[in-house]
């Protein structure tokens, strides 16, 4: 049966347009051409006794940056991890204009006393922090504000080096299987930070809805093939269930 599936998949692939990895950089081949968006994801590990104070501090600062037109950035979402790494905050920012926009925002924030005071106070509450710069896959939705209430799942995949194009080719077809309940929020791949890393962001009504939606994907012809051929590309994978904070545009 497995041999039959491989032959059938190979035959189908003859009729599907694939990215040629030899012609250009991965970022140019996989990212959206019409939008020059750069994303930054931040992971903050907060002292357990400080999480509520941390959230309040962020709620007072992050929406101000988001709403101020002098900053070419948008707060896409901000969450606390519910299941997965505990006492963790996750922030996702979008910079419309790419790296120049990021640099411009960072330079302006260095002159913002309120932001500098916020960072100083925030530092007292953190155990560790890290970030990544990301591009969005061309075939994924652009993450836009949602009314909610929803829980969010951030599924993170560490791919084997050299497999990003192959991953993109399979998921360009697979994403259609995961749109029926509007669960697909955004898909990203790393540019700076941990490399060959992919993040898929999903929204669900609750944990049972997540279970039902994921199980329903197996009823679509072709989903089993995607899973079969993408699992060997993965070195490590992780799932976080996250709850939006009051400041999050993704509710």
From TrEMBL:
Gene coding for it: NIPSNAP2
Signal peptide range in chain numbering: none
Span of domain NIPSNAP: 152-249
Record keywords: Autophagy, Mitochondrion, Transit peptide
Top-level taxon in the UniProt lineage: Eukaryota
Chief place where the protein resides: mitochondrion
Subcellular location: Mitochondrion matrix
Name used for this protein in its record: NIPSNAP domain-containing protein
Function of the protein: Protein involved in mitophagy. Accumulates on the mitochondria surface in response to mitochondrial depolarization and acts as a 'eat me' signal by recruiting proteins involved in selective autophagy.
Stated family: Belongs to the NipSnap family.
Gene Ontology biological-process annotations: mitophagy
Pfam families: NIPSNAP
GO cellular component: mitochondrial matrix
InterPro entries: Dimeric_a/b-barrel, NIPSNAP, NipSnap_domain
